[in-house]
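Subject: sequence -> C-alpha coordinates, single chain

Hey, anyone have a minute? Need the predicted structure for the following. Not urgent.
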Amino acid sequence: MKNIIRLNTYLLTAVFFFFINTNTFAQESAKFEQQVKNLQEHLKNDYFSFGILLQGQADFQPERNAGNGFHASKARFKMGGTFDGKFGYKLQATMLKSPSVLDANAYYRPSSQVELKAGLFKSPFSHEYLTGAGSVLFARRSTAVNQLGTKRQLGLQLDTYTSEKTFRFTGGIFNGNGYNGNSNDDNKFLYVGRVESYFGDGDNQTKLGVSVANETKDTPGSGNLSTGYIGQQTLLTTYASTTQGKLLLDGEFINAWRNPDVGADSNPYGYYVTAGYLVTDNSRLLARWDAFEGDNLAQDSEHILVGFNHSPNKFTKLKLTYSFPTDDSFDKSNFFAILQVGF
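Reply:
Had a minute. Here:
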Protein backbone atom coordinates (compact mmCIF):
# COMPACT_ATOMS: atom_id res chain seq x y z
CA MET A 1 0.00 0.00 0.00
CA LYS A 2 2.85 2.36 0.88
CA ASN A 3 4.45 1.78 -2.54
CA ILE A 4 1.17 2.51 -4.33
CA ILE A 5 0.91 5.79 -2.42
CA ARG A 6 4.50 6.65 -3.35
CA LEU A 7 3.92 5.96 -7.04
CA ASN A 8 0.69 7.96 -7.08
CA THR A 9 2.61 10.81 -5.46
CA TYR A 10 5.14 10.75 -8.30
CA LEU A 11 2.39 10.75 -10.92
CA LEU A 12 0.35 13.49 -9.29
CA THR A 13 3.44 15.64 -8.79
CA ALA A 14 4.33 15.36 -12.48
CA VAL A 15 0.77 16.12 -13.61
CA PHE A 16 0.51 19.03 -11.18
CA PHE A 17 3.85 20.40 -12.41
CA PHE A 18 2.68 20.12 -16.01
CA PHE A 19 -0.62 21.92 -15.54
CA ILE A 20 0.82 24.64 -13.31
CA ASN A 21 3.46 25.40 -15.89
CA THR A 22 1.34 25.05 -19.03
CA ASN A 23 0.41 28.72 -19.07
CA THR A 24 4.01 29.74 -18.44
CA PHE A 25 5.18 27.51 -21.31
CA ALA A 26 2.56 28.99 -23.60
CA GLN A 27 3.49 32.57 -22.69
CA GLU A 28 7.21 32.03 -23.18
CA SER A 29 6.94 29.65 -26.14
CA ALA A 30 6.77 32.25 -28.90
CA LYS A 31 9.68 34.21 -27.45
CA PHE A 32 11.83 31.10 -27.00
CA GLU A 33 11.04 29.79 -30.48
CA GLN A 34 12.09 33.07 -32.07
CA GLN A 35 15.34 33.04 -30.11
CA VAL A 36 16.16 29.52 -31.32
CA LYS A 37 15.30 30.46 -34.92
CA ASN A 38 17.71 33.38 -34.67
CA LEU A 39 20.39 31.03 -33.36
CA GLN A 40 19.74 28.57 -36.19
CA GLU A 41 20.34 31.28 -38.78
CA HIS A 42 23.93 31.45 -37.55
CA LEU A 43 24.45 27.72 -37.03
CA LYS A 44 22.72 26.12 -40.03
CA ASN A 45 23.34 26.32 -43.76
CA ASP A 46 23.86 23.89 -46.63
CA TYR A 47 27.53 23.08 -46.00
CA PHE A 48 27.54 23.28 -42.19
CA SER A 49 24.87 22.85 -39.56
CA PHE A 50 25.10 22.37 -35.82
CA GLY A 51 22.47 20.98 -33.47
CA ILE A 52 22.06 19.72 -29.92
CA LEU A 53 19.84 17.34 -27.97
CA LEU A 54 19.62 17.63 -24.18
CA GLN A 55 17.44 15.44 -21.97
CA GLY A 56 16.99 15.41 -18.22
CA GLN A 57 15.22 12.34 -16.85
CA ALA A 58 13.47 11.39 -13.62
CA ASP A 59 13.26 7.64 -12.93
CA PHE A 60 11.27 6.16 -10.04
CA GLN A 61 10.39 2.58 -9.08
CA PRO A 62 8.50 1.83 -5.84
CA GLU A 63 10.58 -1.22 -4.83
CA ARG A 64 14.02 0.33 -5.27
CA ASN A 65 16.11 0.98 -2.19
CA ALA A 66 18.51 3.07 -4.27
CA GLY A 67 18.59 4.47 -7.79
CA ASN A 68 15.44 6.58 -7.78
CA GLY A 69 16.14 10.12 -8.82
CA PHE A 70 17.32 12.31 -11.66
CA HIS A 71 20.04 12.13 -14.28
CA ALA A 72 21.06 13.49 -17.67
CA SER A 73 19.88 10.87 -20.17
CA LYS A 74 21.03 12.60 -23.38
CA ALA A 75 23.63 15.29 -24.08
CA ARG A 76 24.50 15.21 -27.76
CA PHE A 77 25.72 17.52 -30.47
CA LYS A 78 25.70 16.91 -34.19
CA MET A 79 27.28 18.52 -37.23
CA GLY A 80 26.66 17.93 -40.90
CA GLY A 81 26.35 19.46 -44.32
CA THR A 82 26.45 18.98 -48.08
CA PHE A 83 28.63 20.33 -50.87
CA ASP A 84 27.39 20.81 -54.45
CA GLY A 85 24.20 19.01 -53.38
CA LYS A 86 26.00 15.66 -53.78
CA PHE A 87 28.72 15.14 -51.17
CA GLY A 88 27.86 15.27 -47.51
CA TYR A 89 28.96 14.37 -44.01
CA LYS A 90 27.56 13.81 -40.52
CA LEU A 91 29.19 13.73 -37.11
CA GLN A 92 27.28 13.09 -33.89
CA ALA A 93 28.77 12.65 -30.44
CA THR A 94 27.64 12.31 -26.84
CA MET A 95 29.17 13.84 -23.75
CA LEU A 96 27.79 11.17 -21.42
CA LYS A 97 29.55 7.92 -22.36
CA SER A 98 32.59 6.36 -23.99
CA PRO A 99 33.22 5.96 -26.86
CA SER A 100 31.65 9.34 -27.39
CA VAL A 101 31.28 9.21 -31.18
CA LEU A 102 27.81 8.01 -32.29
CA ASP A 103 27.88 8.80 -36.02
CA ALA A 104 30.80 9.63 -38.30
CA ASN A 105 30.08 9.13 -41.98
CA ALA A 106 30.30 10.61 -45.44
CA TYR A 107 27.83 10.14 -48.30
CA TYR A 108 27.48 10.73 -52.02
CA ARG A 109 24.18 11.50 -53.78
CA PRO A 110 24.56 11.32 -57.57
CA SER A 111 20.80 11.98 -57.79
CA SER A 112 17.85 12.64 -55.50
CA GLN A 113 17.01 8.92 -55.64
CA VAL A 114 20.37 7.35 -54.79
CA GLU A 115 22.72 7.70 -51.83
CA LEU A 116 25.96 5.84 -51.01
CA LYS A 117 27.11 6.14 -47.40
CA ALA A 118 30.28 4.94 -45.63
CA GLY A 119 31.45 5.13 -42.04
CA LEU A 120 29.68 4.76 -38.69
CA PHE A 121 25.88 5.06 -38.60
CA LYS A 122 22.66 3.22 -37.70
CA SER A 123 22.33 0.01 -39.69
CA PRO A 124 19.03 -0.11 -41.67
CA PHE A 125 17.18 -2.70 -39.61
CA SER A 126 14.76 -1.72 -36.85
CA HIS A 127 12.00 0.83 -37.50
CA GLU A 128 12.04 2.18 -33.94
CA TYR A 129 15.83 2.27 -33.65
CA LEU A 130 16.06 4.33 -36.85
CA THR A 131 13.74 6.86 -35.20
CA GLY A 132 15.85 9.67 -33.74
CA ALA A 133 16.38 9.76 -29.97
CA GLY A 134 14.46 13.01 -29.66
CA SER A 135 11.46 11.59 -31.55
CA VAL A 136 11.09 8.26 -29.74
CA LEU A 137 7.58 8.14 -28.29
CA PHE A 138 8.40 6.74 -24.85
CA ALA A 139 11.22 7.19 -22.37
CA ARG A 140 12.93 4.05 -23.74
CA ARG A 141 12.85 1.99 -26.89
CA SER A 142 11.11 -1.38 -26.83
CA THR A 143 12.70 -4.48 -25.29
CA ALA A 144 12.84 -6.32 -28.63
CA VAL A 145 14.72 -3.47 -30.30
CA ASN A 146 17.18 -3.18 -27.41
CA GLN A 147 17.81 -6.95 -27.37
CA LEU A 148 17.76 -7.86 -31.06
CA GLY A 149 18.44 -4.67 -33.01
CA THR A 150 21.67 -4.45 -35.02
CA LYS A 151 22.29 -0.90 -33.71
CA ARG A 152 25.10 1.31 -35.03
CA GLN A 153 27.75 -0.31 -37.22
CA LEU A 154 30.80 0.51 -39.31
CA GLY A 155 30.15 -0.22 -42.96
CA LEU A 156 28.92 0.72 -46.41
CA GLN A 157 25.27 1.31 -47.42
CA LEU A 158 23.33 1.93 -50.63
CA ASP A 159 19.97 3.71 -50.34
CA THR A 160 17.58 4.14 -53.29
CA TYR A 161 14.07 5.47 -53.92
CA THR A 162 11.64 5.00 -56.76
CA SER A 163 10.97 8.13 -58.81
CA GLU A 164 7.69 8.80 -56.95
CA LYS A 165 9.37 8.00 -53.60
CA THR A 166 6.70 5.43 -52.78
CA PHE A 167 9.24 2.63 -52.37
CA ARG A 168 12.67 2.64 -50.73
CA PHE A 169 15.35 -0.04 -50.99
CA THR A 170 18.33 -0.08 -48.62
CA GLY A 171 21.19 -2.53 -48.36
CA GLY A 172 24.47 -2.55 -46.47
CA ILE A 173 27.51 -4.57 -45.44
CA PHE A 174 28.96 -3.96 -41.97
CA ASN A 175 31.66 -5.26 -39.63
CA GLY A 176 28.95 -6.66 -37.36
CA ASN A 177 30.68 -5.96 -34.05
CA GLY A 178 29.16 -2.55 -33.42
CA TYR A 179 31.49 0.34 -32.73
CA ASN A 180 34.26 -0.15 -30.21
CA GLY A 181 36.97 1.86 -31.92
CA ASN A 182 38.46 -1.24 -33.56
CA SER A 183 38.40 -2.78 -37.02
CA ASN A 184 36.49 -5.97 -37.82
CA ASP A 185 37.95 -8.27 -35.15
CA ASP A 186 36.59 -11.57 -36.49
CA ASN A 187 36.70 -10.99 -40.28
CA LYS A 188 32.95 -11.78 -40.43
CA PHE A 189 30.38 -9.43 -41.94
CA LEU A 190 26.81 -8.39 -41.21
CA TYR A 191 24.50 -8.04 -44.23
CA VAL A 192 21.32 -5.99 -43.90
CA GLY A 193 18.56 -5.33 -46.46
CA ARG A 194 15.38 -3.31 -46.09
CA VAL A 195 12.32 -2.54 -48.24
CA GLU A 196 9.83 0.19 -47.32
CA SER A 197 6.69 1.52 -48.94
CA TYR A 198 4.92 4.83 -48.31
CA PHE A 199 1.30 5.84 -48.83
CA GLY A 200 -0.65 9.05 -48.34
CA ASP A 201 0.48 12.52 -47.36
CA GLY A 202 -0.25 15.30 -44.91
CA ASP A 203 -2.14 14.07 -41.84
CA ASN A 204 -2.80 10.64 -43.39
CA GLN A 205 0.41 8.69 -43.94
CA THR A 206 1.33 5.00 -43.77
CA LYS A 207 4.69 3.24 -43.82
CA LEU A 208 5.19 -0.53 -44.22
CA GLY A 209 8.54 -2.28 -44.16
CA VAL A 210 10.54 -5.49 -43.93
CA SER A 211 14.22 -5.82 -42.94
CA VAL A 212 16.52 -8.85 -42.94
CA ALA A 213 19.95 -9.16 -41.32
CA ASN A 214 22.32 -12.12 -41.58
CA GLU A 215 25.78 -12.73 -40.15
CA THR A 216 28.21 -15.33 -38.91
CA LYS A 217 29.38 -14.17 -35.49
CA ASP A 218 32.66 -15.12 -33.86
CA THR A 219 32.77 -12.91 -30.78
CA PRO A 220 32.84 -14.95 -27.55
CA GLY A 221 31.74 -13.11 -24.44
CA SER A 222 28.59 -12.03 -22.66
CA GLY A 223 26.08 -9.24 -23.06
CA ASN A 224 22.69 -8.86 -24.66
CA LEU A 225 21.62 -11.04 -27.57
CA SER A 226 23.46 -8.90 -30.11
CA THR A 227 26.91 -9.69 -28.63
CA GLY A 228 28.89 -12.61 -27.31
CA TYR A 229 27.97 -15.30 -29.84
CA ILE A 230 29.67 -17.87 -32.10
CA GLY A 231 27.59 -19.18 -34.97
CA GLN A 232 25.03 -18.18 -37.58
CA GLN A 233 22.28 -15.64 -36.92
CA THR A 234 19.41 -14.35 -39.06
CA LEU A 235 17.09 -11.53 -37.99
CA LEU A 236 13.78 -10.52 -39.55
CA THR A 237 11.64 -7.52 -38.67
CA THR A 238 8.32 -6.39 -40.09
CA TYR A 239 6.82 -3.07 -39.14
CA ALA A 240 3.93 -0.74 -39.86
CA SER A 241 3.25 2.84 -38.88
CA THR A 242 0.24 4.96 -39.78
CA THR A 243 -1.04 8.40 -38.88
CA GLN A 244 -4.67 9.09 -39.70
CA GLY A 245 -5.61 12.55 -38.53
CA LYS A 246 -5.17 12.58 -34.75
CA LEU A 247 -4.73 8.80 -34.48
CA LEU A 248 -1.33 7.08 -34.51
CA LEU A 249 -0.82 3.30 -34.78
CA ASP A 250 2.66 1.82 -34.76
CA GLY A 251 4.07 -1.69 -34.40
CA GLU A 252 7.09 -3.90 -35.03
CA PHE A 253 7.89 -7.62 -34.75
CA ILE A 254 11.49 -8.90 -34.59
CA ASN A 255 12.36 -12.59 -34.88
CA ALA A 256 15.79 -14.22 -34.57
CA TRP A 257 17.07 -17.60 -35.71
CA ARG A 258 20.31 -18.51 -33.96
CA ASN A 259 22.39 -21.55 -34.89
CA PRO A 260 25.43 -21.67 -32.58
CA ASP A 261 28.46 -23.81 -33.28
CA VAL A 262 28.02 -25.31 -29.82
CA GLY A 263 24.65 -25.84 -28.13
CA ALA A 264 21.04 -25.89 -29.21
CA ASP A 265 19.40 -23.61 -31.77
CA SER A 266 17.20 -20.85 -30.38
CA ASN A 267 14.46 -18.52 -31.56
CA PRO A 268 14.13 -15.35 -29.43
CA TYR A 269 11.59 -12.80 -30.60
CA GLY A 270 9.71 -9.72 -29.49
CA TYR A 271 7.22 -7.09 -30.56
CA TYR A 272 5.46 -3.90 -29.60
CA VAL A 273 2.14 -2.32 -30.57
CA THR A 274 1.54 1.38 -29.95
CA ALA A 275 -1.55 3.58 -30.15
CA GLY A 276 -1.53 7.35 -29.80
CA TYR A 277 -4.07 10.15 -29.95
CA LEU A 278 -3.55 13.91 -30.23
CA VAL A 279 -5.65 15.45 -27.48
CA THR A 280 -4.42 18.91 -28.52
CA ASP A 281 -2.22 20.12 -31.36
CA ASN A 282 0.79 19.82 -29.04
CA SER A 283 -0.16 16.95 -26.72
CA ARG A 284 -0.46 13.21 -27.33
CA LEU A 285 -1.70 10.32 -25.19
CA LEU A 286 0.02 6.97 -25.79
CA ALA A 287 -0.38 3.31 -24.89
CA ARG A 288 1.88 0.38 -25.75
CA TRP A 289 2.07 -3.38 -25.33
CA ASP A 290 5.74 -4.46 -25.19
CA ALA A 291 6.58 -8.19 -25.17
CA PHE A 292 9.80 -10.20 -25.46
CA GLU A 293 10.51 -13.95 -25.44
CA GLY A 294 14.20 -14.72 -24.80
CA ASP A 295 14.01 -18.50 -25.43
CA ASN A 296 16.20 -19.16 -22.37
CA LEU A 297 18.90 -16.76 -23.62
CA ALA A 298 17.50 -13.62 -21.96
CA GLN A 299 14.73 -12.80 -19.51
CA ASP A 300 11.18 -12.86 -20.87
CA SER A 301 9.14 -9.72 -20.29
CA GLU A 302 5.75 -8.17 -20.91
CA HIS A 303 4.96 -4.53 -20.17
CA ILE A 304 2.05 -2.15 -20.58
CA LEU A 305 3.22 1.42 -21.10
CA VAL A 306 1.15 4.57 -20.82
CA GLY A 307 2.59 7.87 -21.97
CA PHE A 308 1.86 11.55 -22.37
CA ASN A 309 3.96 13.85 -24.58
CA HIS A 310 3.65 17.61 -24.73
CA SER A 311 5.55 20.00 -27.04
CA PRO A 312 4.98 23.68 -26.20
CA ASN A 313 7.08 24.46 -29.29
CA LYS A 314 9.09 22.49 -31.83
CA PHE A 315 12.30 22.77 -29.79
CA THR A 316 11.12 21.48 -26.38
CA LYS A 317 9.23 18.40 -25.26
CA LEU A 318 7.96 16.87 -22.03
CA LYS A 319 7.58 13.07 -21.99
CA LEU A 320 5.84 11.14 -19.22
CA THR A 321 5.97 7.33 -19.28
CA TYR A 322 4.55 4.76 -16.85
CA SER A 323 5.65 1.14 -17.40
CA PHE A 324 3.83 -1.75 -15.69
CA PRO A 325 5.16 -5.35 -15.94
CA THR A 326 2.22 -7.71 -16.47
CA ASP A 327 4.33 -10.70 -15.43
CA ASP A 328 5.62 -9.20 -12.18
CA SER A 329 4.45 -7.27 -9.13
CA PHE A 330 3.23 -3.70 -9.08
CA ASP A 331 6.37 -2.76 -7.13
CA LYS A 332 8.45 -3.35 -10.27
CA SER A 333 6.58 -0.68 -12.24
CA ASN A 334 8.52 2.39 -13.39
CA PHE A 335 7.66 6.05 -13.83
CA PHE A 336 9.80 8.23 -16.13
CA ALA A 337 9.66 11.95 -16.83
CA ILE A 338 11.87 13.54 -19.50
CA LEU A 339 12.34 17.21 -20.25
CA GLN A 340 13.99 17.70 -23.66
CA VAL A 341 15.49 20.59 -25.60
CA GLY A 342 16.79 20.06 -29.11
CA PHE A 343 17.33 21.69 -32.47
